[in-house]
Design a protein that fits this description.
Strand 5 (124-128), helix 7 (134-146) and strand 6 form a beta-alpha-beta unit. The protein contains 22 helices and 18 strands. It has a six-stranded parallel sheet, with helices on both faces. The protein folds into three domains: 3-170, Thiamin diphosphate (ThDP)-binding fold, Pyr/PP domains (Rossmann fold), CATH 3.40.50.970; 186-336, TPP-binding domain (Rossmann fold, 3-Layer(aba) Sandwich), CATH 3.40.50.1220; 349-536, Thiamin diphosphate (ThDP)-binding fold, Pyr/PP domains (Rossmann fold), CATH 3.40.50.970. The chain has helices at 3-13, 28-35, 47-61, 72-77, 79-88, 114-118, 134-146, 159-163, 186-198, 213-226, 258-265, 315-324, 335-348, 353-364, 377-385, 406-416, 428-434, 438-443, 459-467, 482-488, 502-512, 526-537, and strands at 18-21, 40-43, 65-69, 92-98, 124-128, 152-158, 202-206, 230-232, 247-250, 268-272, 290-295, 309-312, 370-373, 394-395, 422-427, 448-454, 492-495, 515-521. By secondary structure, the chain is α/β, with parallel strands linked by helices.
Length: 539
Amino acid sequence: MNVAQAIVQFLEQSGVPYVFGIPGEETLDLLDALKHSDIQFVVTRHEQGAAFMAATYGRLTGVPGVCLTTLGPGAVNAMTGIAYAFLGQMPMLLISGQKPVGEVKQGNFQMVDVIGAMQPITLLSQRLVKAEAVSSLVFNALYACSSFPYGPVHIELAEDVAKRTVPDNLARVNQFEINHLPAAADRDIAEVAALINKATAPLLICGQHACRPGVAGVLQTFIANTGIPFATTQMGKGALDEAHDLYRGTTALSEDDFVHKVAAQADMLIMVGHNESEKPPLMACCHKQMILHIHDVAPVINETYFPSHALVGDMAATISGLAEKLGRGTGDQFGQLNTAFLRHEERLRKDADPLQIVDQVRDAMADDGIVTLDNGMYKIWFARHYRAHQPNTLLLDNALATMGAGLPSAIAAKLAHPERDVLAVCGDGGFMMTGQELETAVRLKLDIVVLILCDNQFGMIRWKQQEDGYDNFGMDFQNPDFAVLAQSYGAHGHRIEDTAKLGEKIATCQQQGGVHVIETPIDYSADRIFSELDEITKI
């Protein structure tokens, strides 16, 4: 068995079903090993798309998503997806090829210090230099990315090292299990419970890691027993059913948003599963509140996150222990604010184009259907107004918050959950960055719908440009006919002018199966957003 075969065997034994990427001449041994394995190699059309797919697969399943690239340009092309997984804390493994280490034939051709470039945005970035180290290095890499805080790891494999024979005593790799952390100490849980019982207006805020299956289930019991209202960060959407009477919104903007109004009236914020890389959800409004941190790890204290108490340990076990020591709360202290927001939302529904689109998508999707979002102005509307009923059913990225992730994430989501409906929502700007992955989706015979919202500009940046008093400049572009473009890839293309018919079209496409692209215009009238904020801040 050679090194490449040993790596693939290790991936198989670790439960990896897919490897996403683009091969190069330096990775042909790995490619051949994959051919003779049970792992499906998913050829993508760009390494960035492959990295997004691997990251999202890891996010949804907990099994490391694996990305394969060649040296130099291939590895560098994947860096955006690597940073996406790093800040978003998604388990992922990148394997990049390299020239033979034992000989120099082409000087510095395509040579980039990939190890050095990857180190700031990975949990581990190492070069495999000898066959004897393959088991320990791959084991360590997979363990690192599968343990909290999760994230990407990188192994560089030289062409000649991949061909070397692995000693017989190292050819068999051992599986590993991640042991669960213990709950926080009973004494600490009792102390925090006493504080919560004294609070008159506590608010639970679910962060990204509250979406883990075990955590989300315990949180349901916690809310039912205590009656404490809850909100979510963008990456925490769906941790609890947002149709619940105690749901008080999602942090969508940095300040002056409805949730900030709620948080400002709270006397205690209970932060569960907070990811410090996510855009600070409470920035300016919560310097007087007592903040409790519940997580697997200790908090990172800074100017935007400053808890006074922390319960560190297995989150599910800690929350369960905490719930046993809590009484029923004094009732919802934010009902008036919530009523005002719902009333305003209903008024917006009459003429706000983005909200109508959100409603149509929500109506078309099953409770367990997965919506993957790119990054753009529409993300704010989906974060605030799309009611997620289950964890990880509205996939937002609020850490790197990059454009281009929507379509590749939808492909990964469908591979991870083939039984569910999957819809990608992309802006026209973001779609054009990774839209070539339509061919990948068609080739894989996936059933997905891609909704492209067209405003012919970088709408979010234009909004900020206008807000800051600058003239409109550098934001506008022209688009292809997306319906025709989709058809050229072998997908189905549609254009919908009437927003009221969008939900019906999505449902029809889901029933038909295959890859469908729906293009629809979207109108971002800045005054609607500003007037909404203005009205809320007066409450």
